[in-house]
Write a structure and sequence with these properties.
By secondary structure, this protein is an alpha+beta fold. Helix content is 63%, strand content 11%. A hairpin with a 3-residue loop joins β2 (296-303) and β3 (307-311). α12 (353-366) crosses α13. The longest helix is centred in the N-terminal third of the chain and has 47 residues, at 2-48. It is rod-shaped.
């Protein structure tokens, strides 16, 4: 029994020893896990503060940093800029001293340092922008922004004209400067031309597709094709701008704000727009139709989403707002293929009405533009104050209406004169009644 108790004591002692050894081991493992994280964080800050880092890498590595870390990085990059400007200032002093033997060498050094300084300043600006984006305090950020503004002005003041000219010339021929800007401009122009070409092709395809739908008005087809063209073009321009590094997200916010403002400022115009869309969809008339609306009449020449252009017989152009058209009675004279021509001929009470009717029937029957069906109607329609009015109502194609109207009017006058049928003008018989006792 004692032997078992002794064995149990030995086992408990061994467990206690192993536990005491395990706790420090766990603490050591935790410490070793935290140590690489701290080292990695320190390496990240060191890499971000390295003045040889490229702008693309810097922009990516700035993303995980906090405002406090960005504050430290901003100070580091400010030191880089300061050191670079110090070198530039010393070389400028040497140039102003007039050391002609070393002038070419100094200008070469200055050109190289200027290029490096431009990159460093751009990276410094990237750090400040990221810091401001993450909520940098105004009192912390302002000294840096003021420093950047002041040094740009100071460099211009302290640099001699020859160096400025040399720097400007180098900027013009460098891919990071004028040459790159010219290439980017040519690329934008080429992209705009391509998008214009693509938009035109898509518009033609949409027009061909819409032509196969007979229920859509010509005005709506034109509107849809134009809308497709501008939608493709604007979308393409936004894509091109995004490819060239332009942030197009603020443009959508601007468009949203402008649409909200214009919605209040252009209520009447929006009313015309809505009316124009209703006219295009419901199709009360189409281009080429002869309509009477809003006190105006003529052929519909063109219609936009805002107004309708009407051309009168004497070639006058009338622009009518769509809201006025949609809110008024619309008479579409060209809606039907056939139209009745209403003519009225007055003859004297002493003339033979039946003979006049036969003459008109003969004229209508011989006119090639008068339709045989429906049958024309010619009859005594009214006993007027000065004449017996004969109604003549033949049918014609809508396009031939006015030709038939004017032809029959002229032919009827000639035949009535030949047949001795008079067309009376308004007259009045006055009877004088003598009054007794009146002085003569």
């Amino acid at each position: 029994m004692a032997r078992y108790i002794y064995g149990l004591v030995i086992l408990l002692f061994a467990a206690a020893v192993s536990t005491s050894n395990a706790v420090p081991a766990y603490a050591q493992n935790a410490a070793t896990e935290q140590e690489p994280a701290a080292v990695q964080q320190e390496d990240l800050l060191t890499e971000v503060a390295d003045k040889s880092i490229s702008a693309g890498d810097l922009e990516i590595l700035l993303v995980p940093l906090t405002t406090d870390e960005l504050s430290e990085i901003a100070v580091a990059w400010q030191d880089h800029v300061r050191n670079q400007l110090e070198e530039i200032a010393r070389i400028n002093l040497s140039l102003q001293a007039g050391n002609e033997a070393q002038e070419d060498d100094l200008r070469s050094q200055l050109s190289l340092i200027n290029d490096t300084g431009t990159v460093i300043l751009d990276n410094y600006t990237l750090v400040l922008n990221e810091w401001a984006l993450k909520g940098a305090a105004e009192e912390d950020l302002k000294p840096h922004t003021d420093y950047v503004l002041a040094l740009k002005t100071g460099v211009l003041k302290t640099t001699d004209l020859q160096t400025l000219f040399h720097n400007a010339l180098q900027w013009l021929v460098s891919w990071e400067g004028g040459a790159g800007l010219l290439l980017a401009g040519l690329g934008v122009l080429a992209a705009v031309w391509v998008m214009m070409f693509v938009a035109k092709v898509v518009r033609r395809l949409s027009e061909r597709g819409l032509e196969k739908i007979p229920t859509i008005s010509r005005m709506l087809k034109k509107f849809i094709a134009t809308a497709v063209f501008w939608a493709i073009f604007i979308l393409g321009i936004l894509v091109v701008l995004a490819l060239f590094g332009v942030n197009v997200t603020p443009l959508f916010a601007i468009f949203g704000g402008l649409s909200f403002i214009l919605g209040f400022a252009l209520q009447e115009t929006l009313g015309n727009l809505a009316s124009g869309l209703m006219i295009m969809v419901l199709k009360p008339f189409d281009t080429g139709d002869y309509i009477q609306v809003g006190g105006s009449s003529g052929f519909v020449d063109e219609m936009s989403v805002v107004s309708t252009k009407i051309r009168t017989f004497d070639n006058q152009i009338i622009i009518v707002p769509n809201s006025k058209i949609w809110g008024d009675v619309i008479t579409n004279v060209s809606a039907s293929d056939e139209r009745r021509v209403d003519l009225v001929f007055g003859i004297a009470y002493s003339d033979n009405a039946a003979h006049a009717i036969n003459v008109l029937k003969e004229l209508v029957g011989r006119h090639e533009l008068c339709l045989k069906s429906p049958d024309p109607e010619i009859f005594v329609g009214e006993l007027g104050d000065n004449s017996v009015n004969i109604f003549c109502r033949p049918w014609s194609k809508s396009d031939d209406y006015w030709t038939v109207y004017w032809d029959l009017t002229g032919q009827a006058k000639e035949r009535f004169d030949q047949e001795g049928i008079s067309i009376p003008f308004p007259q009045r018989d006055v009877h004088l009644i003598p009054v007794e006792g009146a002085k003569t």
